[in-house]
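Subject: sequence -> structure tokens, single chain

Hey, anyone have a minute? Need the predicted structure for the following. Not urgent.
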Amino acid sequence: MMLEKLSQLAQQCSYIDPQLYDKYQVKRGLRDVSGKGVLAGLTEIAEVHSYYIDENELVHIPGELYYRGINIADLVRGFLDEGRQGFEETTYLLLFGDLPKENELKEFEELLASYRTLPRSFVRDIIMKAPSRDMMNTLARSVLALYSYDDQPDDISIKNVLRQCLHLIACFPLLAVYGYQAHIHYHDDSSLIIHSPKEEYSTAENILHMLRPDNQFTELEATLLDLALVLQADHGGG
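Reply:
Had a minute. Here:
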């Protein structure tokens, strides 16, 4: 089963030796008294290079973002040169440690598409009732409400937590767009438009498809939105 295989990959690529927390004196906080970042956690998922030390002097440089050791510029160049979008591929890389092969990416995209649906009546009962003026509040309430619709909400096995994560990744575009549509309908007197996602569309394409009243968007718009999603896919670096 694909979810079982992906669970094993996620576990293998995310292990941190507990002794490293003592070795590197990991502590809370963002900056020490010298202005350098302090270690608040350990990760091999994402990293930001923003300075180097030259004879005990802090030298700032233009920031470089790395996902699983791959420079984001190289990652983006790879899928743009092939004329495709990269958010789904980037998600696979962040979760499972390596770039997917072509067949693995196809299976992963199909898995996300299968999760890109909300429980029956969720939009009506959760999103449309008492819509908030704050989109972050709307998203937070929607995620919390999904607990009640989950058959295994308290199962913390890696396989089940991965399932929940993939479902959230797939559904966040729906939660965001539908929450926004409810907001502008109830608070700005705009027409209420709810479009269902398309299985064959990418995450970026589905956001634009559901957001626009006429479902129309250009390839350039989808590419730019996809790039934004790639750059925001992980906040673990520091």
